[in-house]
Design goal:
This protein is an alpha/beta fold and 486 residues long. It folds into 2 domains: 2-57 and 322-485, Aspartate Aminotransferase, domain 1; 65-316, Aspartate Aminotransferase, domain 2. It has helices at residues 28-37, 65-72, 82-95, 106-117, 131-139, 167-177, 201-214, 225-235, 244-252, 278-284, 287-291, 302-314, 318-337, 355-358, 368-380, 419-434, 452-455, 470-481, and strands at 2-3, 9-10, 52-53, 99-103, 123-126, 143-146, 185-188, 218-221, 257-261, 271-275, 350-354, 382-383, 385-387, 407-411, 441-446, 457-461. A 5-stranded mixed sheet has the order 4-10-9-8-7, with helices on both faces. A 3-stranded antiparallel sheet has the order 11-14-13. Strands 1-2 form a two-stranded antiparallel ribbon. Strand 5, helix 5 (131-139) and strand 6 (143-146) form a beta-alpha-beta unit. Helix 3 (82-95) packs parallel to helix 12, helix 4 runs parallel beside helix 5 and helix 6 runs parallel beside helix 7 (201-214). The longest helix is centred in the C-terminal third of the chain and has 20 residues, at 318-337. The chain is globular. The mean pLDDT is 97. The chain binds ligand F0G. Ligand F0G is lined by residues 56, 58, 105-107, 130, 132, 188, 192, 221, 223, 261, 263-264, 271. The site of ligand F0G has 15 residues, from helix 4.
């Protein structure tokens, strides 16, 4: 962030654009048709119909010149690739861990960890679940216990570490089930589904003390560890002058094992599992050739392995670690100025709009976050993602599991969007907020059993005073106000 002479803080890009991708700017009519064809699920839209793709930061970050250069030098040997040894060196330097297993993406790491360590009847406590993590652990017959603090579900908050794990709930869980039922405690560095909220170092230390007392290992999902470290540096007393690299090392130093989706922060493909414990490595390594690929490429091209090695080091660069978080903070701040209800404080991954406060008359069962994501797309061509009840699957009896929070996530991939993009998105979302009474609900047309948010199809329904034709009516109102630009 840099302070302008008028006092306003703005994120300052410490990079320049070298390669570009031309963007389409579909009309509101085209956007309406596209979202209808996509079954009102933004996952099912095509790039040609999207202006700003804020679905995710996964695989969509811009790479650096050094990453691209490194990928040209890759060694594509099936076994023994030199590219792998560069990655293992980077893991040793950045995480201080001896053993590295590359995998094709984050959920592949979750699959291997689940197969190796999670058994039927196990309880896995975590600061918050992630969709794919939960799916893999549940498939193994385990139960996932999200034990974040109660504050985490308050979207309008000034709590700086809403990704903290609730220590009392952890002690209770261990007392109730017994430590032998708990294969490990999982901490997610910036809790994605809470709005990219970080945990504090103090909280992690306290979790570690409890874990040590009961001899329970700690696994950290380090997909966004650079962002979590950056927020610790900015928010936690005592870390102002510690380097991001040292904060990352201190976090990882408390884990028995870490894994990550490298797609989210340090490159465009891949993931890894790392540990300092030989016995853990020995349990997992044989699973890699079965499910991923040989131990030195893990199911991705060695070009990506090279890029991951460089990206991992860049992730701890003082600027790179915070560049997404700063732009997100600015984005959230501008939307708050317009009165739009947002998750505060701003976190990682993206700006999170609170659909429950945006359209309070649309009930959880009418999927307000899904409806709002569709409405934002119609009004702007900005593609966000539902992170609410649709993203929860039903329970074993088919009962709807209501999400505590209904969010639309507008992801901010690293070094991709400019200030003009952010200002455009703010303007159109602010317009939508003025017309929020026109947004209705959604219901499923086709509903898969697991991870339904990915490929489920929905249709509009009357809700909150809006008719079942709300998408068409919203498009009409938009055309009236933006006749020259619709
Ligand atoms: N862990 C976290 C914290 C994640 O955010 C993700 C993915 C994964 C694991 C799974 O990794 O996609 O490489 O298989 N998050 C993406 C998102 C999908 O859009 O938030 P993956």
């Amino acid at each position: 962030m840099i302070k302008l002479s008028n006092g306003r803080q703005i994120p300052l890009d410490m990079h320049k654009v070298k390669i570009i991708q031309r963007l389409p700017f579909p009309t509101v009519g085209q956007r309406l048709k596209a979202i209808e064809e996509a079954g009102f699920n933004t996952f099912l839209l095509r790039t040609r119909d999207i202006f700003l793709d804020m679905l995710t930061d996964s695989g969509t970050n811009a790479q650096s010149d050094h990453q691209l250069a490194a990928s040209m030098e890759s060694d594509d040997a099936y076994a023994g690739s030199e590219s792998f040894y560069k990655l293992a060196d980077a893991v040793r330097d950045v995480f201080g861990m001896e053993y590295t297993l590359p995998v094709h993406q984050g959920r592949a790491a979750e699959h291997i960890i689940a197969k190796a360590l999670v058994k039927p009847g196990h309880i896995v406590p975590m600061n918050q679940h992630f969709t794919t993590t939960k799916a893999h652990f549940v498939l193994q017959g385990a139960t996932v216990e999200e034990i974040c603090t109660d504050e985490a579900f308050k979207t309008d908050s000034s709590c700086l570490f809403k990704g903290n794990l609730d220590l009392d709930k952890l002690e209770n869980l261990i007392a109730t089930h017994g430590a032998d039922k708990i294969p490990f405690i999982r901490m997610e560095s910036t809790a994605n589904l809470l709005g990219g909220q970080p945990f504090s170092m103090a909280n992690l230390k306290a979790v570690k003390a409890i874990a040590d007392k009961h001899n329970i290992p700690i696994i950290i999902d380090t997909s966004l560890i650079g962002d979590n470290a950056y927020m610790i540096k900015k928010r936690e007393a005592g870390y102002e002058n510690t380097s991001i690299a040292d904060i990352v090392k201190e976090i990882v130093g408390m884990a028995d094992l870490v894994y990550m989706s490298a797609r989210k922060s340090c490159t465009s493909r891949g993931g890894l599992i790392a540990t300092g414990k030989k016995e853990l490595y020995k349990i997992m390594a044989p699973l890699i050739p079965v499910y991923e690929g040989f131990l030195t490429y893990g199911g991705i091209s060695t070009r990506e392995i090279e890029s991951m090695a460089v990206g991992l080091r860049e992730m701890t660069d003082e600027y790179t670690a915070g560049c997404a978080a700063d732009l997100i903070e600015y984005f959230v701040g501008r939307l708050l100025e317009k009165g739009v209800p947002m998750v505060t404080p701003a976190g990682g991954v993206g700006a999170h709009v609170d659909a429950s406060r945006f359209i309070p008359n649309v009930a959880h069962e009418q999927y307000p976050a899904g409806a709002l994501a569709a409405a934002i797309f119609i009004c702007s061509g900005v593609r966000g993602m539902e992170r609410g009840t649709i993203s929860m699957d039903r329970d074993v009896d088919g009962k709807e599991l209501i999400s505590e929070i209904e969010l639309v996530r507008l992801a901010v991939p690293r070094r991709v969007f400019t200030m003009s993009h952010i200002e455009y998105a703010v303007d159109r979302i602010a317009w939508l907020y003025e017309h929020r009474d026109m947004i209705g609900g959604l219901t499923f047309d086709y509903e898969p059993e697991m991870l339904r948010f990915f490929i489920g199809r929905l249709k509009p329904i009357a809700a909150g005073g809006a008719s079942e034709n709300w998408p068409q009516e919203l498009a009409q109102a938009f055309i009236k106000d933006f006749s020259d630009q619709a």
